[in-house]
Amino acid sequence: MAAEFEAAGARIVPFGEPSDVCVIHTCAVTANAERTCIRLARSVKSARPRTRVVLAGCAVEYDRDRLLRLARADRAAGHADKFRLPGLLGLPPPRDSNLRLVPRFQRTRALVKVQDGCSFGCAYCVVPLTRGPSVSRPLREILEEVRALAGEGFLEIGLTGANLGCYRDGRRGLVALLESVEAVPGIRRIRLSSIEISTVERAVIAFMAQSQKLCRYLHLPLQSGDNRILAGMGRRYTAEQYRDLVQEAVETLSGPGLGTDLIAGLPGEDERAFRNTVSLVHDLPFTNLHVFPYSHRPGTAAARMSHPVPPEVRKRRVRRLLDLAERKRARFARSLLGREVTMLVEQIDGRGRARGWTSEYVPAALPAAGLEPNRIVPFTPTRFQDGVLS
Length: 390
Prior knowledge:
By secondary structure, the protein is an alpha/beta fold. Helix content is 35%, strand content 20%.
């Protein structure tokens, strides 16, 4: 979207600075995400009433009229319009109408979206309502974008999708895509967003074991460690199957970073079900947990479920899982002490330290002397303090 505006002659400024147009790409996954987008839009409109505020993305698809009213925005653009905004707002078209734009990023890691939508229909999820069924980009088109980003100097590429494991281009799936991206000169690290189990996770693990570029980090959404709740969610595995997969990944990859998503307080989740989740999370070597309280989303199957969990109980369960997550993250980080890791330098902070992330997705910092952003640095950490390897 930023590249489209720049091609039309606009200048991108940091959020909050004076601007003619402010575009907020909204999220509808949780009610809290939606409220954050509304708050941001209202803050811009209050500070600068003449700025045209445009809402784009999923929350627009989910509830356009209500969102516009609450956010006091000037315009909404769903997925069909969000990449045509300059023209819709009256800006001149690029001189070269055939120009293929290279996405613009304000950081050292470039993201390449290869798939969108989801056909699974989990009970709590609005993604099928806002993004539709699973669709994938042609592999040829993706590789053109990756080559262009490599030409811009990006060393690390993150492959993303609403349901990444469902990527398909004819008979070619995610592993075929990974093989092709790994062969692109200039790309030195590839990072994956989350992969739903019951898709291609075992093939990805096998590829990761022999890859020279794929980061040793897997994000495998769990959501619950209780089989009754998993069934109610419409998930496609049991807690035992998930445990077996993680054990296989750890044995094959010799200690990868391991992330997951958890939802606390789905309607019908009693204390026994929650204890089962805590027990499974405790047993498995997670290094990064995304924990959310269940969010009521009208139109989903879960919104019609009985036995809602009180909000204060949901919050208490989230807090307990986050406390467990902090301990597990620290334990994993300390296991890396004395072992060589690599860090992509993302910034030099005000204290003269180079900061970034290891391949295993652990934050790291080094003295900045001789270092600069967008450089991959090997080092052997000797301490873990304040959540950072150094």
